[in-house]
Amino acid sequence: MGLLGFIARRVVITIPLLIGISIASFAIIVAVPGDYVDAWMGQTMAQTGLSREDLLPRAEALREELGLDRSFFAQYFIWIKGIVLHWDFGDSFTQSRPVSEVIGIRLPRSLGIALVALVIGQSIGILLGIYAAVNQYRWGDTIATVVAFLGIVVPKFITSLVILYVLVFIYQYPYIGAFNSPEYAIQREFSFAKLWNLFLHVWPVLAISIWAGSALTTRMMRGNLLDVLNAQYIETARAKGLTRRRVLFKHAVPNAMHPVIMNMGSRFDYMIKGELEIAIVLGLPTIGPLILSSVAERDMYVVSAIFLLVAVMLVIGNLLADILLALLDPRVRRATMAGGK
Q1: N or C: which end of the chain has fewer CB within 10 A?
Q2: What secondary structure does DSSP assign to 138-188, as a single string?
Q3: pLDDT digits over 1-54, tens only?
Q4: In this structure, which CATH number among 1.10.3720.10, 3.40.250.10, 2.60.120.10, 3.40.50.1370 belongs to the domain 104-296?
Q5: What is the pTM of this model?
Q6: How would you label 148-162 residue by residue, b for 16+ Cβ within 10 Å and e otherwise?
Q7: How far is residue 254's CA from residue 260's CA, in Å, rounded to a whole number?
Q8: What is the DSSP code (8-state) at residue 98?
Q9: What SS3 class is residue 149?
């Protein structure tokens, strides 16, 4: 019951955190000067030539209809009550349909890309870090270090722009700006041809996210493993006659992975933000372009719901990282089980 008690305590602790996150998510967009009605007035004046005075009566009626004339806390409690009781995130002002429908397709796409990039990126980063540490100061270590530093310092949107230019203007690559080609877009049943077509559209996002995500893990794993390999208990294990491979993978690597696993929860958030940034540049229909357009149009319920859900994913990611660390390290597991008694 120790590990289950630990999970239960963490879940209880996250409740106040989620409440604070929900308030912050709602306040971020509400605090911006202006609201959806102001954006509507500006767009309507540009399209019709009507003056602001002409539109004021309709604007006030629209603001009252949408509930934007209420105080911040009144709007927030109505919004959070709908989420808690009915899983209702409100309606999109611009699309006149529930927010859950607006983000229902885009959010799973973003989370799926981020999750795949996280798993592959962290695996590559760990393996490269081990290789670089074992081959310290050799050519392999130098190349891995250069690749990792470039992945850390080069902004993802710059890499996206370079890839976009090369694919579109040099190679006339046809798979940009969508998830499937027209012949597969309406196909509902699964097929390997459709899966391959999906990969042809999203591989630039995956490649950039994996490179950027694995870079920091490579540097972290290399530094941690070098410290562990110089520890006294490693020297003792070698003196007992254990093989190099056994010393490395049985004793050194598991202990060097502790900071990597602890950091893995925040890496999922990093992957999501990276996917948003890349998707905006490449024009993929994920939540990245949706956030950008919703912020511009002051579609507050859409933006707040996305911020809240992404924050919840980050909390869940950190919880899973803590559980994985407890399962990996007997010392953490014993402390966890002792705390649950």
Answers
A1: C
A2: SHHHHHHHHHHHHHHHS-HHHHHHHHHHIIIIIS--S--SSSS-HHHHT--
A3: 566 776 777 778 888 888 888 888 888 777 777 788 888 888 888 888 778 888
A4: 1.10.3720.10
A5: 0.79
A6: beebeeeebeebbee
A7: 10
A8: B
A9: helix
